[in-house]
Structure formats: C-alpha cells, structure tokens
Design goal:
Layout: H1 6-13, H2 21-32, H3 34-37, H4 42-49, H5 53-62, H6 68-82, H7 98-120, H8 123-135, E1 138-143, H9 145-159, E2 165-168, H10 171-179, E3 185-191, H11 197-208, E4 212-217, H12 223-226, E5 230-233, H13 246-266, H14 268-281
Parallel strand pairs: 1-2, 1-3, 3-4, 4-5
Helix pairs in contact: 2-5, 4-5, 7-13, 8-13, 9-13, 10-11
Amino acid sequence: MNHTSGRFYSNINSYINDLTKTELKVADFILENMNETIYMTVTELAEQVKVGETTVLRFCRKIGYKSYQSFKMALTIEVAKQSSEVYDVYDEQDEMNVTQSLVLKTIENNIQIMKETSSLIDTNELEKAIECILSKKRIVIYGSSVSGNTAEDARNKFLRIGIIVEAYTDSHMQAMSAATLTKDDLAIGISVSGSTKDTIDALNNAREKGAKILAITHSSRSPITKVSDVVLIAAGRETPLQGGSMGVKISQLLLIEMLFNGVANQIKEQAKHYRELTAKSVLNKAY
C-alpha cells in the first residue's frame, strides 16, 4: 500500500492483519485510486479490482463500516479534506476575478455535462424508451431526492402534450403504485447511482406484475440496470457530499427532453392540440 492518505490509511492499516489476500487487493486499489473510488458503485469497484461484490462488502465491514455507502461517505470526506478541488471553483490570485471565474467555470462544467450525456446516448435504447411511452397504457416514474424532482418535472412536461404520467417520490406510495401495475404499463426509475433501494424495490415489484421497466442512471453497471428492460445513461455523477448537484439535474433533464421531443414528434397532431389546450388553461394565471 502507498501512504496516500494519513488518517484514512492508518485506519485501514490498523486492520491489515485481519484482511484476506482479496480484501488487501481492495484496500490497495482504494488507497491508490481514492478520487475515482468515491464515484464507484460496489459493482464497479468489484469489477475494477476483479473480486466479488461480497469481498468488497466484507472489507468495508472489517474496517468498521456497516455498509458500502457508509464507507464511501467516509472516503469522500477524506478526499475532500485532502483536496479543495471538490469545492474550489476558482484558483485566481486576484480576488477581483473570483466571481467571474465562478460564473465561467460553473457554465463550463454544465456544458461539459451536456456534451458527455450526448456522447453516452444509445439511440437504439432511446428509440425503445420512446416506443414504450407511446405503447403503454399507464406510465409511472419513481425517484428520490433530486431524481424525485426530475420525476415530477417529467410528469409536468408530458402533461402538456396529453401524456398522463404519475410521479412518486414517497417509498410507500411507490410500493402501492407498483403493486397495481400490469403488463400493459411502464415503470420508469430515475437514480444517479443506480443503487437507490426504494426506487429499485419499486421497480422489482413492478416487474413482478409484468410491467416494462425503463431506467435513467449514471451507472451502467448498477443494480437498477439489472431489473430494467431499457437503460438510458446520464453523464452526471456525484459523491455523497455533492447530493443534488446541478450537473446531475441537467443530465437527467436532458434525457427527459429527448424522450419528450421523441414522443411529441410521433404524435404531432395530438401534441399540438394539447399544447394549445394546456397553454390556454393557464392564461388567466398571470397579470
């Protein structure tokens, strides 16, 4: 192991005699690639190290963490302490340039997110997703936190063209909704990490009822993709300390916009009709 991180290294090193050879491989990789590891799911980390997921989970428990997520939170905090990169959006010496630098770098970062999302689009999967929305009788979307906000934005957007979408952000409502689905329905799950338990549980329940499953996630090798028929990948990623980042929101909304435009293009007359109706319905809401 390289001495790459004082306290964190010392913590892992204190358990060195209790680790197996495969667990030592996990420790070595993490300490040498801390900045990358904070963005990895347990599946991605296991694949990088070439060990089983159970080995990663066992390693986390052995060094004192109840779960992979609690371990990753501690690792993220450690990385943040060592580097100001997570939070520092400018490096100019002249304080007069601070605000200007902040504006430019924020815009640049979000433009880059959009470019990365565009490069990750699988047009075949996108076409399948559009067809699912058009062909299914009932459409529900599940998400939590920032992904829950995106689910509600999608519901509101599709309403404008007469596509009725239900959005659920509460785990109990997600469970009840999933229990009522059939093979004629579509369940959409939105999760940045692809590991959000409530969302995946709801999708599993929906799948058991025969519903088609569409996932929108950053991680192509995550639990949500294993229960989905169609997967759309968004570029935005975040650590536990960056929850709700604008980049994540932008990448999700970009995919929703693509789905919306694709569906609207297939039902042009209906879309036009409902756009006019919904626009007229709110005319008296403004002075």
